[in-house]
Prior knowledge:
Layout (H helix, E strand, L loop, with lengths): L4 E13 L4 E14 L2 H14 L2 E5 L2 E17 L5 E9 L22
Antiparallel strand pairs: 1-2, 1-4, 2-5, 3-4
Amino acid sequence: MKNKQWYYAQLRWAVMVEGKEGLREWKEAVHIFPSEDDQTAFQQALEIGRLGGDIHTEGRREVETRLAEVVRLEHLGANPAQFEVRLGSSRAKERLPFEHIFQPEEHMPESPV
């Protein structure tokens, strides 16, 4: 059995509002978790991000938090703990329609140099 190593993943979600508003804001968080290798860690980061999504209604509008991107994925080596660090949210600067579909699995984040 392969020894697991620790990984750091910075994830970004888009808060999308149905109708004219579309993209409202970005939310980010950091997750640290064990994994067998880089590719498995990327798949785990995608799963963590998808589980962090949410759908609720505000009045008559649907508001959905969707995984948009694995911003950063870093191999940390052997480390004894798992935890999450919420990075807060930021106002959206671009306009995206509510129907926009994010495809985070198509962009593998770069590892730091």
